[in-house]
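Supplementary Note 3. Input sequence used for the single-chain structure prediction.
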Amino acid sequence: MTETTPLDTALAAMRAAEEDDVLRLQFYERFADAEVFMLLTDEVSGETVRPQILTDEDTPFVQVFDRELRLVEHAGGVAPHVTVSGRSVVEMIKGQGIGVALNPGVSAGEVLIAPQSIDWLAQTLANAPEVGQARPVEVRAPGTVPEALLGSLDRKLASARGLAHAAWLAGVVYDDDTTGHLLAFVDAVPDAQPALANAVAEALTFSGVEAGSLDVTFVSTDQPITARLAKVGLRFDLPMPEGPRAPVMPGSDPDKPPKLR
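The predicted structure, written as discrete structure tokens, is reproduced below.
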């Protein structure tokens, strides 16, 4: 039986409702977060890769697959490739007039992502959250939160393995009398805090919620606010790591993608 991947499902939903901006955003979010396999002309040399290019109407596309078996079937056997995240692919090729051929030859999941779309996605992923100075004085049960945002948060936090014990979503009142929603990470790994804040910002962006905002803070188990959050908030559990940490593959760190040549 042919596997239907999460990217296949997101692509089919987008194609079935081409005017739905939320479904289009969700597809690009899934692509950015996915582990993908990029076809190369030869084996990786240091931090440099040479992608195998597909040309369509004079536009070059790197060939990327969301399953290794799909790459092997397309190439007719084992072929040089690199395992990276979708966002690493975007970082590698942005601004160069290069697009992505996702799953070429795979009927259910084949799509060409134009260079302009890659540049838009790179700009969207680069939007960093703003740092605020207001201090929370009260947390309360969260108000109405769009299902699209909750789903986007679920997907983002599911990939944040071992970066925090949990996260609580709650309503908040600040010392300047403003109100909003707050996502508090409990016992987050200090070095991971910027990445977690960026993940939440992306979840908000890709949810398609217009003029929405969601603040992020970091707390420890022994702080009084944490006990209050546990009473009124909506909990998100982050997966815990399993076994020893896997070696880092070239391009798996989006801040250090392999270089094209």
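The chain has two domains: 6-126, 136-237. Residues 136-237 form a domain with the GMP Synthetase; Chain A, domain 3 fold (CATH 3.30.300).
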